[in-house]
Design goal:
Helix content: 55-70%
Distance between the termini: 5 Å
CATH architecture: Orthogonal Bundle
Number of domains: 1
Number of strands: 0
Largest sheet: none
Radius of gyration: 23 Å
Strand content: under 5%
Structural class: mainly alpha
Shape: globular
Number of helices: 15
Oligomer: single chain
Amino acid sequence: MTSLDTAPASPAATSAPRTYRNYGHPLWRRILVSREAAVIGALILVIVVSSGVVRNFGSPITMTYLLLDVAPILLIALPMTLIIITGEIDLSVASIVGLSSVLLGTLTQGGMPIELAALVAIIVGALGGALNGFLITVVGLPSLAVTIGTLALYRGLAVGLLGTTAVTDFPEFWTDLAKSKLGDTGVPAIVIPFLVLAVIFAVLLHFTPFGRGIFAIGQSSEAATFSGVHVNRTKLILFVLSGAVSAFAGLYYTLRFGSARGDNATGLELQVIAAVLLGGVSIFGGRGALHGVIAGVLLIGVLASALRLANVTSDVINIITGVLLVLSVVYSSFLTWLQKKRQKPGGNRKSPPRTATS
């Protein structure tokens, strides 16, 4: 009689599962042969070509304004990366930027010290992220539907608080600080808080059990739950971080331009998501790296800056950004399809064990 070991495997058991990156390859190959490396290479290529073709592109003042422009996107992209790796999305980030801008303007106009007003704005942003996380993790609603709704809610609150007017009376010290540079380098001072946050998020994502749980959730939330990962708590924390960082980006946005308006940063969420996906993060969750996302943000910023210097209209720049977003999603799906086609039928199936007879 043949034992149960000889029973044929079910189709589900032999199908290729979603897996982490193959760490069996050498370190140099994992670094150089990756989507993140391709984005970094494209960034270097665009910088070199733009410097030779576009007049004044390589000047220090152009680089300064480039970093000033992409700073809010760089900041918001940090928590957005972690959220998308879990398989969720947050479309309310730009409206939180606008809400924090309005809060900073109205509170300082009412006599509150700007430092305290900034703290209140960040707390409100964190609470907005907590509301998103609560509706997604506790109520069980899809993140796309929730954050589309809160996008309209937070933007409506911002416009309702301030109307169509703008607050422009801010302390000169803070507006100058938002636009200041590090000595004679031409590097904006906002780079310092960004680097601090980037290190924190990179360590959190890539070097802690919490970060491994984020990747596990993106691979399979059910498997992550059975592995001991607190799925709902992890997602809630990420949405709170997204709200707080978005509010901080709103403070910088307001002080840099010296204007608090309810429509500040309208449409910024699309640029953030485009940069994150372009940086190698899978829209389906489960993979991504922060250095690729940072390169993706800079790539979009460099392209936009070069095109503006070449007198290309903003509409064309938006079209190019949209094309990059579509191509990044299609490219990710194409690679997944190609990997499946290259797998041999039954390639993951182990050889049948020796049977026991009676």
